[in-house]
Design goal:
By secondary structure, the chain is mainly α. The protein contains 9 helices and no strands.
Length: 234
Amino acid sequence: MALIPSQVLRVAILLSYFSILCNYKAIDMPAHQTYGGSWKFLTFIDLVIQAVFFGVCVLTDLSSLLTKGSDSREQERQLRKLIGLRDWMMAVLAFPVGVFVVTMFWGLYLYDRDLVYPRLLDNFIPQWLNHGMHTTVLPFIIIQMRTTHHQYPSRLCGLAAVCTFAVGYVLWVCWVHQVTGVWAYPLLEQVGSLSRGVFFCCLTSLISCYYVLGDVLNTYIWDHTHTAAKVKGD
């Protein structure tokens, strides 16, 4: 038996995301006052995605508990819809975007932090909040994958959805630059148009790779768990 029920873990993770979002939005930073506000930063978008995703997970847990032992077909149908939404969000948004944000942020931070997180931000964002936005996302999503089996969509449909999200975000960043004349990230200010286009293509490819990684990891975890349970049963 698990030390902490997975349902309790999901509630705790959801509450932590609400806390992170509230604390982040309470910060009075100049970037929040410009066109696009917090929504031009992928980190903030990811936090919203994770909060909504774990909200759906908690709602699914509650619905499953309420429908247990019930003969209502309508309740079962609604529960299947929630499970389908939960699985789709995990596959297409929560895992690939979450892993992308963590790995890209810390990779660029270690190479040259001023490319993605200028030292000026230390005056606004405390270290614990920075880790809440850019570090804990990864273990939280791994915990969810380890405790709940998710049904991934077909590889083609999943990749199409992930690429649509990535291209949509790139176009949004370009539009913000078109309106304000300022790129959301210092890195984009330091490269030419051609290099910027190649960079965007590489990022779209990388987030697509993370979708495939999530699919493979999900399959491995639950195939291994099923095999271990079967062996134990024999």
